[in-house]
What does this fold into?
Amino acid sequence: MPDPMRIRANVHADGVDVRVLMSHEMETGQRKDADGSIVPAHFISNVTITHAGKTVLSAEWGPAVSKNPYLQFKFQGGSKGDEITVTWVDNKGETRTDKATIA
Amino acid sequence: MRPGRREFVKLSGVFATLAAIGLLGEDEARAQQLAWNKAAFETKNLADTIKALGGSGVAESKDIAMTVPDIAENGAVVPVAVASAIPGTQTIYILVEKNPNMLAAAFTLPPGTEPGIATRVKMAQTSNVVAVVKANNQFFVASKEVKVTLGGCGG
It folds into this structure.
């Protein structure tokens, strides 16, 4: 099971600020290893973030997103104590879901 | 007579089916339902990317605010933030002009989510970072040059 994500969600005057740090190689498929053979592409392709059953962000990524991806955004309508759920799926079909409580 | 092999085999068959429907089935279905625009992630220039995203043209906009460093010391981790003031913003795309493939990421922001995003991308070399915004099914663009001292694609 891939490493857990670090998720911070905080209520601000203008919305809930969400910051996520994921743990993933984000291998581009361009790199060669010590033998000279190409390291195959292995990267998060989709991210879905939901709150109260509603999607607040969805993303399609390519391998150019940095290793151990970071993302930050804001949404309205969340309150302290609510839960948000972050899910990623990568190009090999591996997936990871983590939840966090809005502070 | 004690429950024999028949009962046991019948039961495990039931369990196997339930497991397939309940666990495996869900995850696989979810993975397959998630769209990933392969064509858009393989384009080499802006015009082709816009076409792959379903647009016919793109207009420059002063309402797209980009926050990027002037000089990125490490091309593997370049912070990029984009905020759109264009009404009806649906999706924010981040592209790196001189990368092997231009499109790095696409963020869809439903109503109720602020039309802004921050993330980190890889840049192969000094290049323009291009922010494309899809608003009301039209495409808008802004760009900023980022100098890269150490390229970020490895090798």
